[in-house]
Amino acid sequence: MVTEREEGTQTIGGLRSLKINSLRNLLRVTVETEAPVILLSGGNGAGKTTFLEAVYLLARGRTFRSVKTGPLCARGSERLEVCAEVETLERGRGRIEVARDGAGVHRLADPPSWLDDGAAEMPLRVKLVSENPQSLLDGEPELRRRFLDLGVFHVEPRFARVHAQFRRVLAQRNAALRIGGAGVALWNAPFVSVSNAMHAFRASFVTDWNAMFRELAQGFSFLEACELRYDRGWPETESIEETLKKCGERELQRGFSLAGPGRADFGVTQDGRRQSLSRGQTKVAVTLLQLAAERVHLARGKEPAIFLLDDLESELDETTVRRLWELGCASRSQIIATRVSCRPESVFLASDRDVAMFHVEHGQVRPIS
Ligand SMILES: Nc1ncnc2c1ncn2[C@@H]1O[C@H](COP(=O)(O)OP(=O)(O)OP(=O)(O)O)[C@@H](O)[C@H]1O
């Protein structure tokens, strides 16, 4: 497996075929390709993002779009299905299938052993640069914690148990704080222990992630002196026990925990201060964060993820698109990218990787020969 990656051939894992039934405007779509780069072009509303959504659904069992985008099931249909043949370097080929009806999302897989390992070991990992990547750095800390935790989870499956334990302890501690503090003392010791465990996992991932991010950021002058700063959720100068003691009164007044891993955050900083970035620059930073995380995952022996790049060109100048594209192609992960068809596609074809091009129109996806 490593040999193929190191030799730089185009033989990488990823999607080999994708069938979509009744997902938004994609009523019946079949795409078969072994290409390491899949480029979908088409006009607005053609269904390009929906194609990415189908792959994301397979990997994560949910969509990346907000509920405001409306129901996933095509109008007039009661069930959607997405099915893919996937090749992994370690396990060869297998099928993943997701179906959704009124009762929610069901994930089916063949061979069934792929299911036994749990979500962390599912054969399909995706890394998304979405239609609004800025929300990761500009939005709620909750989004960043989820992003960070997914990154940790992929390198350290034991993190899932610690995470679940933390959520249970936090819920109990908060319940005790809400009713005036009776029983809080009972939950402090487990809270301290699970907080320290969670921080240790996160910090170890962030150290590597930051190193990769700084390396990648060298290619972009506005990010040159920037780094990834992780805030564990309580001051670096004190232990979590000390912080709990200090904010005990306030926690009782507010009725919930004010410190701990549930308050962790990260950001792109320069000289310790949050860097102010334009929309385009923020998009670059988020793309680099994804690429950096992928490098960490690969270095820890993970299968390459599939990069889903939704309209990479929007808000970016041509040189920047070219640089990001080169970095993406150098990662040797499979890339599925969308673009609005009015722009020249030369940037995307200028790499040594095979590109399979498809045109998306009125919910149909057709190969461009
Ligand atoms: N449940 C649904 N049933 C049928 N059609 C839907 C449903 N939900 C969304 N759509 C339509 O499906 C299309 C999907 O658009 P999508 O966001 O995938 O387009 P896109 O090609 O990425 O466009 P853009 O370049 O504008 O981002 C839209 O035209 C939308 O109106």
TrEMBL record:
One Gene Ontology MF term: single-stranded DNA binding
Subcellular location(s) per record: Cytoplasm
Highest taxon in the source lineage: Bacteria
Chief location category: cytoplasm
Keywords: ATP-binding, Cytoplasm, DNA damage, DNA repair, DNA replication, DNA-binding, Nucleotide-binding, SOS response
Gene Ontology terms: biological process: DNA replication; DNA synthesis involved in DNA repair; double-strand break repair; SOS response
UniProt family annotation: Belongs to the RecF family.
Name under which the protein is recorded: DNA replication and repair protein RecF
Organism: Thiorhodococcus mannitoliphagus
